[in-house]
Predict the 3D structure of the following.
Amino acid sequence: MSDESTAKNVDPRYKRVAIIGLGLIGGSLGHAIKRGKLADHIAGYAHSEATRKRAMEIGFVDSVHPTAAEAARDADLVVLCVPVGALGQVAAEIEKSLKPGATVTDVGSVKNAVVRDVGPFIPDGVHFIPGHPIAGTEQSGPDAGFAELFDDRWCILTPIPGADRAAVAKLGAFWEACGSRVDFMEPKHHDLVLAITSHLPHLIAYNIVGTADDMETVTRSEVIKYSAGGFRDFTRLAASDPTMWRDVCLNNKDAILEMLGRFSEDLSALQRSIRWGDGDGLFELFTRTRAIRRSIIDAGQDNPAPNFGRNPTHAEPDKSDQ
Amino acid sequence: MSDESTAKNVDPRYKRVAIIGLGLIGGSLGHAIKRGKLADHIAGYAHSEATRKRAMEIGFVDSVHPTAAEAARDADLVVLCVPVGALGQVAAEIEKSLKPGATVTDVGSVKNAVVRDVGPFIPDGVHFIPGHPIAGTEQSGPDAGFAELFDDRWCILTPIPGADRAAVAKLGAFWEACGSRVDFMEPKHHDLVLAITSHLPHLIAYNIVGTADDMETVTRSEVIKYSAGGFRDFTRLAASDPTMWRDVCLNNKDAILEMLGRFSEDLSALQRSIRWGDGDGLFELFTRTRAIRRSIIDAGQDNPAPNFGRNPTHAEPDKSDQ
């Protein structure tokens, strides 16, 4: 964490906010802004006309526009909520309509590549502050969004050297008003942290679901019927948006390959313990991993109820949980 | 599925049931039997005196006994609910007190090894019918049990050749009365199916949590804070009972090594796609895995709400879910 920090008395509101991309995150952001009365007007853009229409029906934007440039015009805050692979093109499209003094941010799951792709299109006098709210569900599209998505989740901002401190503080206050806790990080460190806490878990989930899907000795129907033995937990992450995750893989290659390498190394050691019947080694691993879940629950980052609270009779709804 | 099937008009009740092992599964079974009024008396045994005392306080057994042999005496149904590695010893202990015509079953996550370890201790005239309810949570001990654990979950019975059909039908009817759906399988096939649907997922979860715990460039506190990016989903399985999972690994070695081999092969291919920037290959994998979650939800084996229903404002409690 760097020395930036959000001041308690900074006004979190922007007069006009543009949300570019109206899916799960863009939609949730619109809802959160409305809930907190954080903007006078929310302008929205989505590539698909159906999505724009649906966003207006749901009402998490006040206007929609057929181009990103029109949505961004005169905005005090522009939030790019499209997949990472589309950010460069969108930045090029809005470059000319950004107003001096405006802040541009994004919600991408990688940050180094965003600095590289978006940075060159930001005019002098416009503040570019990359960001990443660590929140989401496995669902996509404008109907998937909800105001509480960011509550008690962390939002990481990765301001580049020389960033305007007042603009950074205001964006931090804005995310806090959306329900988030805010942290600051170097883009490179962000990409390493997220590679282990988010990218590797998604890849492992996609991989195991793929492996199960390819079995010739166990039918797909058996995999589905008996999935409550553990497999079903992985299918949630493996149902996440394919475009988003393709782009993450292509844009955080080095950190992801590093984490995959470590994971595979550890898996080989585990495989060896099983082959040679090393019960003590297995017991030691299976014991120390228990403590981490306890810490995550204590930190308010997961539901303490068994099975994530899936069983209604045993769920203890916890407002800190999403 | 074999040709056995549970008859609709079989009486699911046993006069006296003995539950050997009073943890999550033994406790839940006691609660389910009480809920369904499926026994006149439930006798319980646990190795630890504190557990026996607690089980009586909670009330999911009617009596507790200091030895497994005493608990099993005169029982019409004996259910072994201890870790798989302890089954052989427990079977040896109860051998002499099993009454002719009684049924002995278990709840172990592997079945071939159970037939091997328990089978030799079953006297003539006693029915041994191995079983496995595919249900559980990450919690352990007598306080973790609840009556609804088996509701709408599958219970697999793996009767050995020549098993008494009436005894098998009665045990099937008993599990159905406990809330389960019942299936029949060869022990060897059971072990293969569970290796992919349960054992591999647990091992992968333990492994990734171990990998994250060993990082020197990302702190444990960062892993915990940002775990909502996906990592937290794995920590639930990785918090499961270490003794149980050590025993599963030691007793289903061949099937588990086969699945680990397939998983690693697929992971290497995925790693290669990332290294060479094969966006189309990644997109294809990330798309086809989506369908499986939909099938699991349609089969009533998971909660349709986003994030497993963690968000109370978006949870749609589903009574078929645990």
